[in-house]
């Protein structure tokens, strides 16, 4: 569990650090007014970037348990932990629904 959380944190940092380069390369590749040689070079450079720097490699995980399924984005907590914390009254503004 700790390793998966550390790996996720590392990936998030890498995505952030390579985001600008990745966008620049993609814009060059999509620009049809540039020569094919320049665009091909941009493809090569994009492929040389670390795989973990791609945003699609990020998986939303619970910051408490490391669970990867059923994670509520707003709090980054799994549905199970969220339910427990809400029942204890530890999440402000959240209460059981009643009507």
Automatic annotation (TrEMBL):
GO terms for biological process: translation. InterPro entries: Ribosomal_uS14. One of its GO terms (molecular function) is structural constituent of ribosome. It comes from Medakamo hakoo. The gene is rps14. Belongs to the universal ribosomal protein uS14 family. This is Ribossomal protein S14. One of its GO terms (cellular component) is mitochondrial small ribosomal subunit. It holds the Pfam family Ribosomal_S14. Keywords: Mitochondrion, Ribonucleoprotein, Ribosomal protein. It comes from the Eukaryota.
